[in-house]
Amino acid sequence: MSETEDDFLVLDDVKTWFPVTEGLIRKRRIGEVRAVDGVSFRLRKGEILGLVGESGCGKTTLSRTIMQLQPATSGRIFLEGSELTALDRRSIRRRRTQFQMIFQDPYASLNPRMTIFDTLAEAIGTRREKLGRDELLREVGNLMLTVGLNPGQMRKYPHEFSGGQRQRIAIARALAPRPKLIIADEPVSALDVSIQSQILNLLSRLTREMQLTMIFISHDLSVVKYIADRIAVMYLGQIVELGEAVELMERPRHPYTGALISAIPIPDPKRERARKRVILVGDPPSPLVIRGGAERESVPLREIVPGHWLADPGAFIAERRPKVLSR
Amino acid sequence: MIPPIQVSASESRLPVVNLDPAQLEEGSSLWADAWHRLKKNRLALLSFWIVVFMGVFCFVGPFLSPYSYIDQDLMRTLESPSWAHPFGTDDLGRDQLTRLMVGGRVSLGVGIIATVVSLMIGVVFGAVAAYLGGKIDNAMMRFVDVLYALPFTIFVILLMTIFERSILLLFVVIGAVEWLTMARIVRGQVQALRRQEFVEAAISLGLSTRRILLRHIIPNVLGVVVVFATLTVPAVILLESFLSFLGLGVQAPLPSWGSLIKLGSDNIQQFPHLLIVPSFFFSLTLFALNFLGDGLRDALDPKSSRD
Amino acid sequence: MPFLEIKDLTTHFHTRNGVVRAVDGVSFFLRRGETLGIVGESGSGKSVTCYSMLGLIPTPPGKIVAGSALLDGTTDLLRASRKELRKIRGKRIAMIFQDPMTSLNPYLRVSTQLIEPLQIHEGCSKKEALKRAVSALEEVGITEAARRIHAYPHEFSGGMRQRVMIAMALITAPELLIADEPTTALDVTVQAQILDLIRERQAARNSALILVTHDLGVVAGMCDRIAVMYAGKIVETGTAEDVFESPLHPYTVALQRSIPSLGIKGKPLYTIPGVPPDLSRPIPGDAFALRKGLRNGGKWLHTPPPLRQVSETHWVRECDVELPALEEVKDV
User: Fold this and answer.
1) Contact A194 C217 (CB under 8 A)
2) Omega of the bond prior to B253 within 30 degrees of 0, cis?
3) Which of B21, B23, B219 sits opposite A113 (nearest CB)?
């Protein structure tokens, strides 16, 4: 792939495999869980990429690999030109403020023993600006206002807030170090519908205002269609289709993408009961590969139309035996 | 309700906020919640006050007594309880009440100090092992396993016989054994914590390992540690009294509840008060500590703090 | 004569912070073979309603304060003795829970758990029950059922476990099936399979179904009638067409407007201003009107708004609230 100046985040054949071993003393490697199995894409600055797929497809592992919380087994990751995968741990730690993550579970993502002030002040502290006590108070207050929280509550503890408010705090913490890349891993999945839209609006606006690049992971395709510029569909650790969001949702080219879209129920009784649906049989497959078993090949992406990448439409889908049903 | 905060827009996207620290609403921490819950548990509260009473009794009491624990009065040996000696005297005419209080100092003192020592070593050891994981964790925990396998009693008896029987040695020896269990418990907790998202968030911020351990990991295992510590103290006291009973505890004439009980059991037929009184205080304290530990565990149970 | 008739069900929880009125005067009915969807967000009382019906509310701290739940015109579930309830639960009424990981006993084999209802309710022999259990598993699409039935729950995937749950619920051919968020924890592809399965099995036995969910798409596809709950009360009820094509209560309207699939890229999504109410405080009037940021005419602030019949099938609770227009939506 040729690099252009626009590239903000580049992934080049990234693989994250977890070895599976057998034996008590002399461990033999019998296989591996190929969570991420050859992912490549490039993001422009300010772009929002939606990452979708069933459980086990590798989207969470991919996000943790990009965040350097999990080392990649092979492949390269470039952030603004510098190769993250080539850096040693100390260098990575120094750069961590450039990329931050928003987690799914608003209950587990905040330290229950720290006040909101403590949590946000700690995050602000990574900016390495020398701030006095008053200035720090003001910064934390500002941050809270930005995400729609009342600064008067900064001395409270996480358990005193609702799920939606906690997620706002998590967003504030992610923004505090002034990052350039945000990975949001199912940030609204654990929230009520009426709160979801508030948080989505917030994320959308902040990303635009702060010119952030974002990877938005979700299993809910309609959410992703709304917020993302482009969508990547993952299956068994690889991308099967990547394209502009609305285009991909309305004219999916890979049968797996089509099945995913078809599975979304339409909130309109007449249309929902009248439409034809594609049902996949069985559960999402396991990325576990045992040596000596069936070999799984990497399926390359081809750019069939500028900006729209597609893996071989015959790949993967056969084992799920898609059925077309109408009521 | 919005507090009266001045918000004015400026050129930057973010408004400037003038905050008055006095207007900030106070939060209620999980410790405060736990304290509330503990207060509602009558048995635990009673136990708490019993422990406090014992503490005052043993540490302040001797200052109020006209006797010291070594004052002998050979004219008045083995007396039954009287106004002059509320708990009687022993075979050397020493006042039992005073000796009980001083003995309590030793027993409680050993209990608390040894527990604190084991706590400090165990928490750090367990937290570091679990946080670093992998081979380091393996090595550290195998070390613990080996120590665990040593026959503690024989070990202690050996040490006490070889070296002088000082209180310090007692502290060290007991603390050196109790930390093992604490390390294992803390390691288990930290392993579970390590996977929680807020720890990953802290790592993502680029915080140092030391800071993560101190601010994020250890405060969240303190609940378990406190409960375990409250239950370790009676175990240590029991251990010490066992040693005293064997004649291996603190050097005479310094009493401990264990040695007092031994003395009492030697004279049980004729002078039962010498056994009954120290046994009663000993048992009461142990019960209280155990119930307090139970109460603390219920109070700190995270499940009940989530509404 | 409706198969199930709930009247004025009221359930309170006595907590540290006060009395939470989780369900406040809920009434609905269900005919044989019909599917009713109960839609609401967390705190709306939809799950508590179903648990109350089956006597699954822990008392304390919960208490069913008022109401009746007539099954088949004869038995009031809320007043039945423990013995009577036990005969009904698992036999005539079965429940499917949300989380397939915690609703199956991890220490017992699947076979043991599947044959249990048969042994208890129908006095089957172990051999006979096992045969039926295997065919129940086959019916829900588990291949190699005869072999896999002896496995433990953790050896099944999430989707498979939910199928096992459905098999367990259907094995005694219950007349009423209650499904509490049965697919929320599942992938969207598996959700489609499971919903299909529930619908198919329900039709085969003409069982009635109460489907509790927050997902409007799910109810659109599955339900004949829908009840929308807010703050412990039903605010609107009608056929699926009524509720989706002519929603009348502002909450129903707002919910539908805020679905992301209706969002237009680049424009903020519609949001409902304010936050859900604190149910531990007594609310004398309309709870929805109390949301900060909603304009309301003040009519139902002090008296509880009544239900008004709009058509033969469509009922809506009076509400004097005016929803903000899309352009007015602030995203914070």
Assistant:
1) no
2) yes
3) B219
Nearest residue to C287 via CA among C98, C15, C13, C45: C45
Which is it for the CA torsion A209, A214, A220, A224, positive or negative? Answer: positive
Neighbours of C94 (CB within 10 A): 25
Tell me which residues of chain A, numbers 192 to 231, contact chain C at a CB-CB cutoff of 8 Å.
192-194, 196-198, 200-202, 204-205, 219-223, 225-227
Class of domain B40-59+96-305: mainly alpha
Strands C208-213 and C35-39: parallel
Give me the residue spans of the domains in chain A.
Answer: 7-80+180-325
CA distance B127 to chain C (A): 30
Distance of CA B140 to CAs B136, B148, B150, B193, Å?
6, 12, 16, 19
What values do phi and psi take at C124, rounded to 5?
-70, 155
B307 and chain C in contact, CB less than 8 A: yes
What confidence tens digit (pLDDT) does each residue in A45-95 have? 999 999 999 888 899 999 999 999 999 999 999 999 889 988 888 899 989
Nearest beta carbon to residue C189 from set A220, A260, A266: A260
Break chain B into its structural domains and give their ranges: 40-59+96-305
Token output for C142: 């588990």
Q: Under a CB-based contact definition with an 8 Å cutoff, are residues A13 and A75 in contact?
A: yes
Predicted TM-score (pTM) of this structure:
0.83
* Closest residue in chain C to residue A223, using alpha carbons only: C260
Residue C113 per-residue DSSP state: H
Express each pLDDT in A235-275 by its tens digit: 889 999 999 999 999 999 888 898 889 888 888 888 888 88
**ipTM of the complex, rounded to two decimals:** 0.86
- Tens of pLDDT, residue by residue over C297-308, are 888 888 889 999
Angle at B67 between CA B62 and CA B69, to 5 degrees: 70
Fold of A7-80+180-325: Rossmann fold (3.40.50)
The number of beta carbons lying within 10 Å of the beta carbon of residue C85 is: 17
Determine the Cα–Cα distance for residues A169 and A22; give it in Å rounded to an integer.
43
A221: three-class secondary structure by DSSP: helix
